[in-house]
Write a structure and sequence with these properties.
8% of the residues lie in helices and 40% in strands. It is mainly beta and 211 residues long. The chain has a single domain (16-205), classed as Beta Barrel (Lipocalin), CATH 2.40.128. The strands form 2 sheets. It has an 8-stranded antiparallel β-barrel. Strands 1-2 form a two-stranded antiparallel sheet.
Length: 211
Amino acid sequence: MGSGSRESCDIRYFSPLSIFNSVKGSLISTLALTYAGLNIATMVMLTKPKDVIKALTGSWIYLNVTTYYDNGTIANRDEPGLGRTPAGLLTYTSEGFMSANFMSSRPEDRPGQLDTTELEGAEEEWALIGKHTLAYAGPYYVSVTTSEVETGQITHGPAQVAWLPSWVGKEIRKNYTLLDERATLRLVARTNDDVLVAEMYFRKLLGLTEN
């Protein structure tokens, strides 16, 4: 990732339509438009959360991430535990559950001789693997809908299982965009330390029946 700047993205307040957020079904909001001094009420149909879940259902392989400050300046900072080029897989089910699994791709972060059969190996080696892994799973829901299935916000959690005890029960809001005819997923969220914004890209994996 090089230095530079990009358009700033406020992920705290997704859009003016977020106040109409619901996970219970189709929503309709009224937007007041002013034309020639007259107020005209226009009805806007928001996407049904179930349609968003259908579009997201499947497994997504991690491609890359760019982190930047709120002013749009790109940050040349690796994720402390996972490094610059981690491997990751994100899965959403049609029943509303998700899992996220990431690991460092650096050989020095993952001693290869360890095995769960006997749980042998130094405690430091097991701790090293845990330090350079991120994994959690639980329900997810559509927290903001817009007029398009391809754009909105989802919330992971509350996490039911996690590689860190402090992540159990945690919720993470992510703005999403589906690109390339819904084959690419972009997720935007604040980093764990709340200092940067992370823009992550994933590619949808095709199942055996889709090849």
